[in-house]
Design brief:
It comes from Methylocaldum marinum. This protein is of the alpha+beta class. Helix content is 32%, strand content 26%.
């Protein structure tokens, strides 16, 4: 049983266990936390399960990022001590790698539209103050310039490219033809995030032990946090796209960030494919849920269900004015669907999200686009 000494709070701007006026530690209290990262030798950043608060702890125990811990408070005071409670082999509480990854990345993620907006402002600020080397500035510029414009996603080819470059398929690309890897990942959102994050960390922590780290103001730290938040969002979507079992429908959840003039948005997509059951002639069943935030129009939602050549479409919004606009455009959409060679089944403007039929009930573990 290894004692762990809590040394100091992390992220002062957030509520931590050691700040006055917050929930105090109680002697004998049992806490659950996971190891977010190792800060230095025998010093770890822990994140509490449930409320996401963080603390820094020192321990001689061999801990690894992603590890879940049960901790007992054995000493109070200005330097509390926590004891790691060992887990027995039959405890049944061991978490899978996916569960551990979710605990690590879920608290860090932020909506990509929000990240891109803040990132552009921080990059402009860093450019005015010359706070970053030219190499990092070029990498940041490449990251934001690779984000497509809305008009690019309005074509089948552009949308396919946006899906491919969303980041959730990066590892699949890397596992493909080695001769095409360099070309396929140059515009990949996750690959660009990883490259920038690696260079930012190298800038703040030089390889030479005797060379002092360059000064990094709050702007640089905020840029790194935004990059990490965007990366956590992509990884969370990747984890949410893993099939729970071999017989489960294929499900992909993702966001495609895009620009619309000065406006920044991200198309939230949930794509599900369920192979036709029974007869070999049965058609595959596809369902797509979409969420957009057009400027001045509130939230717009769409659900499209395709079976064979028949498509059902349901559209709704959280604002009355946008709902009226949807109704006005339905016949235009019907004509365009016919022009694409599809037979239109339902094309229904709604005042609220549709009730799913049993056949539409495709599991979505992490994101609810109807909320």
């Amino acid at each position: 049983m290894t004692p762990m000494e809590v040394r100091r709070p992390v992220q002062i701007q957030t509520t931590t266990l050691l700040q006055a006026g917050t929930q105090p530690l109680k002697l004998g209290e049992i806490l659950r936390a996971f190891v977010q990262e190792q800060l230095e030798d025998k010093v770890f950043l822990l994140r509490l399960d449930g409320d996401g608060r963080t603390l820094t702890a020192s321990s001689s125990a061999s801990l690894r990022p992603g590890q879940m811990l049960e901790l007992e408070v054995i000493k109070l005071g200005t330097m509390p001590e926590l004891r790691v409670i060992p887990r027995g082999p039959d405890s049944g509480s061991a978490e899978s790698p996916v569960q551990q990854a979710l605990r690590r990345f879920l608290p860090q993620q932020k909506p990509l539209a929000e990240v891109i907006h803040e990132l552009r402002q921080l990059i402009a600020q860093a450019g005015r103050t010359s706070a970053l080397p030219a190499t990092i500035m070029r990498m940041l510029a490449h990251l934001v310039d690779a984000i497509p414009e809305k008009s690019e996603l309005a074509t089948p080819e552009g949308l396919a490219k946006g899906l491919s470059n969303s980041g959730i398929f990066l590892e699949a690309k890397l596992a493909g033809d080695i001769g095409t890897v360099a070309d396929t990942v140059v515009s990949d959102f996750k690959a660009n995030l990883l490259r920038v994050l690696d260079r930012l960390k190298a800038h703040r922590t030089p390889d030479q032990p005797n060379v002092p780290a360059p000064e990094s103001g709050p702007g640089i730290e905020r840029i790194q946090r935004q990059i990490e938040a965007a990366l956590a969002k992509v990884v969370t979507d990747q984890l949410g796209s893993l099939a729970a079992e071999d017989t489960a429908p294929s499900v992909w959840q993702l966001e495609i960030p895009f620009t619309d003039g000065p406006h920044h948005d991200a198309a939230k997509l949930l794509i599900a494919k369920d192979a036709g059951s029974g007869s070999e002639k049965a058609d595959d069943y596809w369902a797509v849920s979409l969420e957009l935030h057009p400027p001045g129009l509130g939230r717009f939602y769409a659900r499209l269900v395709l079976k064979g050549h028949i498509i059902d479409t349901y559209l709704w919004s959280d604002t009355a004015a946008t709902s009226d606009l949807i109704r006005e455009q339905c016949e235009r959409l019907r004509a365009r669907l016919h022009g694409a060679g599809l037979s239109v089944g339902q094309l229904t403007p709604l005042d609220r999200p549709p009730d799913s039929k049993p056949s539409d009930n495709i599991s979505m573990p992490l994101v609810d686009l109807r909320a």
